[in-house]
Design a protein that fits this description.
Layout (H helix, E strand, L loop, with lengths): L13 H4 L32 H4 L12 H13 L5 E5 L6 H13 L18 H7 L6 E5 L6 H11 L9 E6 L6 H12 L5 E7 L7 H4 L3 E4 L5 H15 L5 H11 L3 H14 L6 H8 L4 H12 L3 H13 L4 H20 L11 H13 L2 H20 L3 H15 L5 H10 L16 H17 L13 H10 L3 H9 L1 E7 L2 E6 L7 H13 L4 E4 L8 H18 L1 H9 L45 H7 L10
Parallel strand pairs: 1-4, 1-5, 2-3, 3-4, 7-8
Antiparallel strand pairs: 6-7
Helix pairs in contact: 4-5, 6-7, 9-10, 10-11, 10-12, 11-12, 13-14, 13-15, 13-16, 14-18, 15-16, 15-17, 17-18, 19-20, 21-22
The structure holds adenosine-5'-triphosphate, magnesium ion and zinc ion.
The site of adenosine-5'-triphosphate has 23 residues, from helix 2, helix 4 and helix 11.
Amino acid sequence: MSGLFQDDANTPSPEEVLPEPPPAEGPGLFGDALPAQEPPAQPTAAYRVLARKYRPTRFEDLIGQEAMVRTLRNAFATGRVAHAFMLTGVRGVGKTTTARIIARALNCTGPDGTGGPTAEPCGVCADCRAILADHHPDVVEMDAASRTGVDDVREIIEATRFRPLQARTKVFVIDEVHMLSRNAFNALLKTLEEPPPHVKFVFATTEIRKVPVTVLSRCQRFDLRRVRSNDLHTHFLRIAVAEGVNIERDVIDLIARAADGSVRDGLSLLDQAIAQAQGSITAAQVSEMLGFADRVLVFDLLEAVMDGKPAEALATTEQAYERGADLGVVLQDLLELVHSLTRIKAVPQLRHSAELPEAERTRGAALADRLSVPVLARAWQMLLKGVAEVEAAPDRRAATEMVLIRLCHVSEMPTPGDLVRRLTGGGGESIAPAPGGGGGGGAMRAMAGGGAAAAAAARPDAAPAAPLPPTFRAMAALVADQREAMLHAHLVHSVHVVRYAPPVIELRPQPEAPRDLAAKLAALLGRLTGTRWTIALSAAAGEPTLAEQRDAAKVERHGAVAEHPLVRAILDAFPGARIENVHDPDADDYGLPRETPAAQPDGPPADLPGFAPADATFADDLLYDSDIDPMEYDA
Ligand SMILES: Nc1ncnc2c1ncn2[C@@H]1O[C@H](COP(=O)(O)OP(=O)(O)OP(=O)(O)O)[C@@H](O)[C@H]1O
Ligand SMILES: [Mg+2]
Ligand SMILES: [Zn+2]
């Protein structure tokens, strides 16, 4: 264990390692690029934060980045090491660490000084040690956050022209590379395209989308993952053991969760916990430190709220408040819990996964069983809004209480999906919720009532036979509802209707339609409607296919819109502008005007809903041609 990480506190100070290059007076190659020496005004210089002390020095010590490590190992093993890498990922997942390991892997000469590039840098050769100590003349780290300009990049480009001073390869590590200016990126492109053989670049960034694609396409890219809380747990436990601190597993759990995938964040929390505690570290201490309301309380609160019991919810909040919990954080915890529960519902195996904390697995699973996904989703949305409200409110406590009361209140109401089902599926249940109070839980009641009955009615086997679809299009839609995608596609694209008189259909299929189309369709319709269908093939031309009709309607809409004076004015004002797409909210799934049986096949202008009438006045004419104060138009 002790050999797993090289404690860089133990490595000799840089000056001892490398007598040759004079220690940088004045600015180094890149000004402050040389590592800032430990601030002298640090009395307890012996202490080194865990995140630095346990910085992995070899690929095998990196946790949670297996895919990247595998690829890099292969690259070194086969001698196909890219000339530029782009490492991206959230804070504290190992980007800078990986960059340094790559630098050593490229430059390690092995214990005997004769080795070549290797995925297993020895850690003892002069180059390895110098890089470990941040003091290798050929490994240059630059922080693009502070040096964003073209001149900084020119310095690099200049430097690439010289051979390495000491090592095989000059490695330029540019951290936060997305901060470089556009010009700086451009200046870099050429060198990046064909760097001299002795030069490698390693870029790191948390915001990959800000890096131009021209740069990305010249790099081998690695996406470092958030580390799973399981892996974090193991890692922190090992470190705690190595540090000889006494820490409960629950505490490690808490920290691993709070770290949210970032190893550094977790290690900083662990540091903090160790510093605060004398002797052993308890979960209560740490939750207090994290500002977390304790788990039990969050569960109590969610249960109260979901059962529609405002009095209990407020009492629990009061308790938390007295203990000094920040109520905004309490709401966030609720939000997080709702998320966990929804995940448990979506992926039932999670109940047994060690990734979830104990409480979620037991009490959470029970709660998840009682709540439906729509109810959880609604709670999520309300809490999300609530969290923002609390941040904005002058009185956080009052705002929190309002959110909780609101949640209690809606827990009595059916979800919109429920309502629709009750209204359409019948079920005779009244929409008004059962009067509150009592156990059971409003939300749960709402789901168990009309919802269940309606759901049963909607199932095809229990459903009465569907009425005969009145039109071909309605029939096609019915087929689509049955998820008969292929059959439906053929109905849309390769069938001309000659006569539609349910339950008789005459069709002229196009040659590409399958031979058994008619048979399949008849069977499906028969099953759905409980009626025998006759589907005859005809040689008559029939109507255009639905797809053809749709295209024609599209062209027509396009034409009608293009004719509209407002649109013409826009096209004139912006030469080169085009009408890309005309969206008609009134069209049905086939892009055709809806077929309401009594509908009038009227003129086309009716197809431009919500659009200004053709004789509308231009707003800007009014605005600019008259001398009325434009503000008046607000009224
Ligand atoms: N994958 C990992 N395995 C083990 N330890 C890690 C890992 N990632 C980060 N750490 C720990 O976190 C510390 C910081 O990591 P590093 O500097 O590589 O993060 P980073 O990704 O560059 O973060 P930032 O975006 O904030 O610069 C390391 O010193 C190490 O202790
Ligand atoms: Mg970094
Ligand atoms: Zn080495």
